[in-house]
Design goal:
The protein is of the alpha+beta class and 136 residues long. 33% of the residues lie in helices and 11% in strands. The chain has a three-stranded antiparallel β-sheet, with no helix packed on it. The longest helix has 23 residues, at 7-29. The termini are far apart.
């Protein structure tokens, strides 16, 4: 196979993906709170944001996906007074992007769309000065 996996392994992974998407869809339909996360480690961690499009394929709205990665996780870990929102007294973990994630959520998978990254109030990446807004 082109992926380097045997047909049997690729088929199993395809089945697993289908079942995972179905589970997310069912949870969303039942109104179950979803908290976004992965178990990717090491070099695979850089692929974490690809899960956003998977949740979208499962029928979750962009707003629901973003909530699952922010406020829902904060509530799950009982840290909703420290993280998960942009508010005074909260940790300042912020990503400024070139797109509206409610409209183009999957564009967050491409780090070139991230203009600024701030963690705990410290700027880790800042390319905002290089950004040329569209004035169409």
């Amino acid at each position: 196979a082109a992926s380097g996996l045997s047909k049997e392994c690729a088929d199993k992974l395809g089945d697993l993906l289908s079942k995972g998407l179905e589970t997310v869809r069912e949870a969303e339909d039942l109104g179950i709170t979803i908290a976004y996360g992965t178990d990717l480690l090491g070099a695979m961690h850089s692929h974490q944001l690809k899960g956003l499009s998977l949740h979208s394929r499962a029928g979750q709205s962009a707003e629901s996906i973003l909530a699952s990665a922010t406020v829902n996780c904060a509530k799950l870990f009982q840290m909703e007074n420290l993280v998960g929102s942009i508010a005074p007294g909260y940790y300042a973990d912020i990503v400024l992007v070139t797109v509206n994630p409610l409209v183009e959520l999957t564009k967050l998978e491409d780090s070139s769309n991230m203009l600024m990254v701030m963690k705990e109030g410290v700027v880790l990446k800042d390319t905002l000065a290089q950004f040329q807004p569209y004035n169409g």
